[in-house]
Amino acid sequence: MLGLHKMTHDGTAKVVSCQLRVGMLAMTSTNSHGASTSTFDLILDVFPDGGQPFRAETHHQFSAVRAPDVGDSLKVRCNPEKHAVKIDISDDERFNPKIFRAENKRKREEEHDRLMNAAPGSPVPGDAADIEARIRDREATLKELDERLERGDISDETYNAEVDKLIGGIGHT
Predict the structure, then answer these.
(1) For labelling alongside 49, which of 17, 24, 114, 122 has CA 20 to 30 A away?
(2) What is the average per-residue pLDDT within 120-146?
(3) From CA 67, how far away is CA 21, in angstroms rounded?
(4) What is 48-99 written as a DSSP string?
(5) CA 147: distance to chain centroid?
(6) Using CA atoms, how far apart are residues 131 and 116, in angstroms rounded to an integer?
(7) DSSP structure class, residue 2
(8) Of 48, 26, 3, whose CA–CA distance to 152 is shortest?
(9) Tell me, what DSSP letter sits at residue 3?
(10) pLDDT digits (tens, 9 = 90+) for 48-87
(11) How high is the mean pLDDT of the chain?
């Protein structure tokens, strides 16, 4: 549904399928900060507040590395009569770039303040335990990227860019 129907209900939806759009209708856009989003086609089980559940398909722009997985729950606006649905990520910290970037900035600032306020000689990022923990985190992320590439959820280009970022960051903060 291309947004031609008035959305009459709030609700939630469970992701049944989330596939990166390919072909003529595929669209990827990059903003002035270099962050890119791609169009994903989704099948959702929709649960309107005060209405009967239904299954619908829609599309939405997500970051290729922050798209929903099967089973994820999303906030939606919907029209149960027309079986139309629109995803609402306005307050979803998992998928709204403004929210997760602000949270990442807050964490960086918090870490900066923690380091600045620590006593001289305190352990610093980059010690062996810190590097090992970050390597484990990156290995898990690489595994997730491998799985998403195999499912066709991300392109080779996106996969390679994300791997380059991860590998370049080992031993660095």
Answers:
(1) 17
(2) 76
(3) 12
(4) ETTS--EEEEEEEEE-TTSPPPTT-EEEEEEETTTTEEEE--TT-TTT-HHH
(5) 15
(6) 20
(7) -
(8) 26
(9) S
(10) 999 999 999 999 988 877 889 999 999 999 999 999 999 9
(11) 82
Residue 95 has φ and ψ, to the nearest 5°, of -125, -15
Contacts of 148 (CB under 8 A, 6+ apart): 67, 154, 159
Q: How far is CA 6 from CA 3, 13, 42, in A?
A: 7, 17, 19
Going from the C-alpha of 155 to that of each of 36, 103, 170, the distances in angstroms are 12, 27, 23
Q: Which two tokens stand for residue 97?
A: 């770039």
Indicate the SS3 state at residue 103.
helix
Whose tokens are 């960051």? That residue is 169
The yes-or-no verdict on residue 28 having pLDDT over 90 is: no
Between CA 159 and CA 145 the distance in angstroms is: 7
Q: From residue 37, how far is each of 16, 57, 61, 113, 165 by CA, in Å?
A: 21, 19, 6, 32, 17
pLDDT at residue 31, as a whole number: 67
Closest of 10, 148, 166, 139 to residue 69, by C-alpha:
148
Over residues 82-107, the pLDDT tens digits come to: 999 999 999 998 888 888 788 888 88
